[in-house]
Amino acid sequence: MRTACRIGILKDVSKYHLSAMKDYILSKAKFDADTAIILGSGMGAFADRLNNLTNISYSDIPGYPLSTVKGHSGELSIGSIKNISLIVAKGRFHYYEGYDMDTITLPVRLFHSLGVKKLIITNAAGSLSLSLPPGQMMIIDSHMDCTFRDSLFVPKKHNSKKYHDPSYIRKAFNCSEKIGISISKGTYCWTMGPAYETPDEVSFFQSIGGHAVGMSTVPEIQQAAELDMKILAMSTITNYAAGIINKPLSHEEVIQVSSQVKDDFASLLTEIIMTI
Which domains, and CATH codes, for the chain? Predict the structure, then answer.
């Protein structure tokens, strides 16, 4: 008997009915994409650049949960960019919203049921270093589960190919050089939220090799890897984490910085889509 995995419930024991969701989506839009994107806080404007665009509200999809966080509009966008078909999630689900892992990872399983093989996961994240300023984009080449939900041991760094494909990472850097946008790479630390990290927590994340911190992405990476999807994950750095500089943290700053870099973000993401 298959049981719940560490990040949540496996697809064959999920409480969600993927077939009904899939059928509804296919009734609303022609779909032949093998690439999906999950957009982070304040990044939904990218989907508006798609051609032949169809937007499907989460509230219209049978049994689909709703995004409750500002900056996540709660729509699936289906269309194309540079003649490449895409499905884009404008809004994700977080542990701090009260959702379980089955719900948080639902979009990944839905994409997989629709035939998606390549997944680009984006997020807004806090920097753990002065050398990684707000506005910078960081390709995630490893991650750590820093939620301490079921272990008090020091988080393990995960950087294997199944989570962070080296060929995709190389292609992302080639794309950034081609269009003249500077990016970095580093380790993403996942926390539960909803509160921002304390200065002491930030110091701990620094000491174990973290570069950025946020409240999403890792469950989606792990679910996609379980389904043998190819994955590229990237952060837009929207603020310094607590204690790095003497400035209070706010979600408004996250949305503001995401908006300020939306053109560079869209240019880089478009180039990556055309390359992977």
Answer: 11-275 (3.40.50.1580)
